[in-house]
Amino acid sequence: MAFADLLEQVGSTGRFQVLHVTLLSIPILMMASHNLLQNFVALVPPHHCSAHTNLSWFQLSPEETLQISVPLDPAGRPQRCQRYVTPQWHLLNYNGSSAEEGSDGVLQECMDGWSYNLTVMTSTIISDWDLVCDLRSLKEMAQTVYMGGVLAGALIFGSLSDRFGRRNLLLISYLLMAVSGTCTAFSSTFSLFCLFRFGCGMALSGLVLNSFSLIVEWIPTRVRTVTGTMTGYCYTVGQLILAAVAYFIRDWRWLTLAVSLPFYAFFLFSWWFHESSRWLALKNKPEEAVEVLKSVARFNGRQEEGEKIDMLQESMKKEMSNVQGSYSVLDLFRTPKMRIMTICLSVVWLSTSFAYYGLAMDLQKFGVDIYLIQVIFGAVDIPAKVVITVCMSYVGRRPSQSGALVIAGITILINILVPYDKQTIRTCLAVVGKGCLAASFNCCYLYSGELYPTILRQNGMGWVSMMARVGAMVAPMVLLTGDHVPWLPGLIYGGAPILSGIAAIFLPETLGMHLPDTVQDVEEIRTHLLLMFPDLVHSMSKSSASLLLLLTLYVKFLLCCL
């Protein structure tokens, strides 16, 4: 008997599934708070060099002190990184020797630090540790370190959860997020801040991978799309929650603490979660799998049906004995279809994440109130995910994935041609692009989970998540190229999704299909492309090395742009 039949027997959409999915979705509300926290804790406030410290006895107003100490930039604002070596008294039209001795106008670095306008946030890591001027690249480095943690977490938790179970690793992820977030809030140096943010990134990977697997492995095929989309909406709502929390808590330490403390509560109630019965069965633990199924049957009010599962233990042992073995990331590349599928998914995830964080992590450039633009960027996900859900349900996963990426890339490229003074048009195009990328992410999680077999699902999800984090790590660095070539970041951010949209065409369709349990199940999938072009799969098998080379060159291209 297939696992899907067992799930129907104990109740596939009963009270257990409703409560299970709900409790797993609640922590996802706070995921965006950590993923996009950098927009607020690393907000760059308006700043300029501090005035000379020996002017207090002249009884000058703050405006006059600033006028004789700091020159103006071409926009008529005080320069951020330079000041006069000596006070320029002549700028006040004073007469006397003091006017003559400071008239040379020689500039120097900010020897006495910086003055910040802290009206938006009362404190940020920028103002606390003076991460401006020569140190301004450390802001992007902090986000890169965080994404490095997400990358490490994808590698570690993806492999371990396939070996030790989804539930155990999810518990560890909740606790790690709570502890690392708390320590981040009390960091005394920038180095410690980066260290603990790295821990938060690792925890986020474990949370995403194991939450998704526990959700998708306990629900039937017919509600998988809707459930996946509703889970994605939790992340969307989380973006709005972040804007609201940041609006009322404007100190970066208290803000970080506020979005971290809930994970202690999540850790406590997560002890109720049931391990994936599908995973237990495939790990040659049929007795434990049956006990979990019985527990679910009792919770769903189907105790009699649950007791009948005893008769299936022997047949389950026999069936599962055929798929035993130790699996690793290398198994994602051993067989032709798994290899092609993994390479194409890697390109899709890398480009989606790269372009998404390139837009979402640079909100200040739009010249709009930071809290308002965060709400707009979060709210656009609502219609975007409605559209992608309808498309995935009726058109299919593959065309939905490809279309979302291509449209996102086109809108970003069009934005390059819009003049910088047309902020409204630029913001609207960026919002559309971000919405398409959010829809692509929503499709990615569901599509990848459906493509990979149960015995390799966590390894596969860990691998593609790792590729996504590579893109997310590179994205902040690409922003620095705009200092030299203003249009280059937009070209890179726009070109990447279009290339990955083409790669998505080579993936098999999964609409209406049962989850594969073994590698053999994946190899037996007949795609629409195979039906139309009988020789395509054979040729793709021979060209898999070329596809891997293309992926490698693509990553190198992004790195070379730095």
TrEMBL record:
Any one GO molecular-function label of the UniProt entry: transmembrane transporter activity
Matches recorded under SUPFAM superfamilies: MFS general substrate transporter
TM helices/strands, residue ranges: 141-160, 169-190, 196-220, 232-249, 255-273, 340-359, 371-395, 402-418, 424-448, 460-481, 487-507
Topology in membrane: Multi-pass membrane protein
Keywords: Membrane, Transmembrane, Transmembrane helix
Main location: membrane
Keyword Glycoprotein belongs to the record: no
Record Pfam families: Sugar_tr
One cellular component term from this protein's GO annotations in UniProt: basal plasma membrane
UniProt cross-references to InterPro entries, sorted A to Z: MFS_dom, MFS_sugar_transport-like, MFS_trans_sf
The protein, known as: Solute carrier family 22 member 6
